[in-house]
Automatic annotation (TrEMBL), chain B:
Belongs to the CPA3 antiporters (TC 2.A.63) subunit D family. Pfam families: Proton_antipo_M. This is Hydrogenase 4 subunit B. The chain crosses the membrane at residues 6-21, 28-47, 67-94, 106-124, 130-149, 161-182, 202-224, 231-256, 262-284, 304-326, 338-359, 371-388, 408-429, 450-471. Its main location: membrane. Residues 124-421 form the NADH:quinone oxidoreductase/Mrp antiporter transmembrane domain. It is a multi-pass membrane protein. The keyword Protease does not apply. InterPro entries: CPA3_Na-H_Antiporter_D, ND/Mrp_TM. Coiled coil: none annotated. It is found in: Cell membrane; Membrane.
């Protein structure tokens, strides 16, 4: 019988694997930003899920995930604004190196 | 009064001021702020040198919920190096950015956020604050790369950002696994608790992978040359001299302080192999570049490879060899910081004067800008590892470590790296000293040339006072298994 925290970890790992696949497979810059966010959710799931000991609520992982979310939101905002300006400047949705392949 | 919080408060306060009140003379203010920073970090360095490591709990909140800062000899040395390089780069930027009025508005806030992140990383005592510092560093650095907002700069920024984000998620996943297994994030506590089981190894492996990505270690380096080579000159200098070192610093602490007995020797050899790859590939690519800034950027890729030799030279060998490897690596980190900043600043002046980035456009430039070329030459001496210079001492220590642990193959890499470096440096000299028709150059302010020269002189000077920083850095009791 699988314990709850292990379930969290397995689901988290699955989400990370799927998002990582998208991140590598797709070259569209917006898709990659989405993949990064989903990957982040997987990491957060492992963080709160696996780190709970003895059925007690541990405040540290919760604090970490909150900070992690703030960081992810800021990174997403920066990625979106640079992508938008890149699109305006070049009309491309992919980086040059990726389109050549 | 404790100086550690000051080193975080000043950059954050200055960042907010320059962001919110752009009408103030924020460039001049930055110099004043940097002087305070330099003074505070020098005081901290002396205090640590005399009294030993210090720690500080922010707001009197104890770990694990509070944030603890720790300053040992290594931290204090890195803080001082950061302040010194940053103030010279700030001085350079003050004059350089007159050509870029729009970029100037955003350069200074980003500069201060970058500095806050760097100081935060050097001072952090736990894995999660290191993560937050790394992320703040990435966001500020990417913003600086994309500053000019043309297509190339934006593409380089995006490439950098995506690589860095992927790296930080791998690192964060490793942190989650470690916290799940041990219930603590403090590096000091973890170093006594870690056991060589599969969870620990996977966690450390993931963190290592993420940090390698962020430090642009071969073959994960492809984002670095466009980002460092395409940015404005003071930005390139800050990125190559300081930013890539931050993630390497975490990696070194992680492996030597916490994971010393956990990771197999073969993994350390693998890291060394990546370093050797970086030295050869980076040197070879630098030799083939036609753009002078890209040449210097590939030189960074190669020089980062030397840092990676720390792992095979320090893990699984005698304490004496490990000490030599540790000292050599940290000294390389210092002297490369000064030398590479000098190189990017002097090359930046050349590009500004000529108006083009091509190596061939620099023909005969030595007659018009002898000071800049002299600064480039001095920094090149340190990067090649010729005596007397900081770079020579660092590579000498690494060579001695390789000899004393009997790892001859790394010696070959060290020598080959020096030859490749000489190859691309002399390419620049050959072109700049040829007699050509006098090129049409723009006059450049003298402070630009002088700040590059000052950094280069420090890089050379490190060769004469090497016992100083080395004595301070060995204050730390954190190194291989606490044996040093």
């Amino acid at each position: 019988m699988m314990s709850t925290d292990l379930w969290f970890a397995v689901v988290g790992a699955l989400i990370i694997a799927m998002a990582l696949f998208t991140f590598i497979r797709h070259t569209h810059l917006l898709r990659r930003i989405l993949a990064f966010n989903i990957m982040g959710s997987g990491v957060f799931l492992i963080m709160v899920g696996l780190a709970q000991h003895d059925q007690q609520t541990d405040p540290v992982p919760q604090a970490l995930v909150l900070t992690g979310i703030v960081v992810a939101v800021s990174a997403t905002a920066l990625a979106l604004i640079i992508f938008r300006r890149f699109y305006k400047a070049s009309g491309q949705t992919q980086l040059d190196e990726d389109t050549e392949q | 009064m404790n100086l550690m919080p000051l080193l975080l408060i000043i950059p954050l306060a200055w960042a907010l001021i320059s962001l919110l009140a752009p009408r103030l003379p924020i460039g001049l203010l930055a110099i004043v702020g940097m002087l305070i920073q330099l003074f505070a970090s020098a005081m901290l360095w002396f205090s640590v040198h005399v009294n030993g490591p210090e720690s500080y709990a922010i707001g009197d909140w104890m770990a694990p919920l509070g944030i603890t800062l720790i300053a040992d000899g290594l931290t204090a040395t890195l803080l001082a190096m950061t302040a010194l390089i940053a103030i010279i780069c700030a001085f350079y930027a003050l004059f350089y950015l007159r050509q870029y009025p729009r970029e100037q508005r955003f350069f200074w806030p980003l500069f201060w956020f970058l500095l806050a992140a760097l100081n935060g990383i050097w001072l952090a005592a736990d894995l999660f604050n290191l993560y937050v510092g790394l992320e703040l560093l990435t966001l500020a650095a990417v913003g600086m790369v994309a500053l000019t907002a043309d297509k190339q700069a934006l593409a380089a920024g995006l490439r950098y950002l995506y690589a860095a984000l992927l790296g930080s998620l791998a690192y964060l996943l490793g942190v989650a696994l470690l916290y799940g297994a041990y219930g603590t994030l403090s590096l000091g506590q973890l170093s006594n608790m870690l056991e060589p089981n599969i969870t620990t190894q996977v966690a450390l492996g993931l963190m290592t992978l993420g940090l390698l990505m962020k430090s642009a270690v071969f073959p994960l380096h492809t984002w670095l040359p466009p980002a460092h080579g395409g940015a404005l000159a003071p930005v390139s200098a800050l990125l190559s001299a300081l930013v890539v070192k931050a993630s390497f610093y975490i990696l070194a602490r992680l492996w030597l302080q916490a994971g010393f007995d956990i990771m197999p020797v073969s993994a350390a050899q693998l890291l060394g192999l990546m370093g050797a790859g970086a030295i050869v590939w980076g040197g070879w690519q630098a030799m083939r570049q036609s753009d002078i800034k890209m040449l210097v950027a590939y030189s960074t890729v190669a020089q980062l490879g030397y840092l990676m030799l720390l792992f095979p030279l320090a893990i699984g060998v005698s304490a004496i060899s490990a000490t030599l490897a540790w000292q050599g690596t940290m000294f390389h980190l210092l002297s490369h910081g000064f030398a590479k900043a000098a190189m990017f600043l002097s090359v930046g002046t050349l590009v500004l004067a000529v108006g083009k980035k091509g190596l061939d456009d620099m023909a005969g430039i030595s007659r018009q800008l002898p000071l800049s070329l002299f600064a480039f030459g001095l920094s090149a001496i340190s990067i090649m590892g010729l005596p007397p210079s900081g770079g020579f001492n660092a590579k000498w220590l690494l060579l001695q470590s390789a000899i004393s642990s009997g790892q001859w193959h790394w010696m070959i890499v060290l020598v080959l790296g020096g030859l490749l470096t000489a190859g691309y440096v002399f390419r620049v000299f050959r072109i700049s000293f040829v007699d050509g028709p006098p090129t049409d150059i723009k006059p450049t302010p003298l402070p630009l040339e002088l700040s590059a020269l000052l950094l280069a002189v420090i890089a050379i000077g490190l060769g004469f006072v090497s016992s100083w920083p080395l004595a301070s850095m060995s204050v730390t009791e954190l190194l291989p298994g606490g044996s040093l």
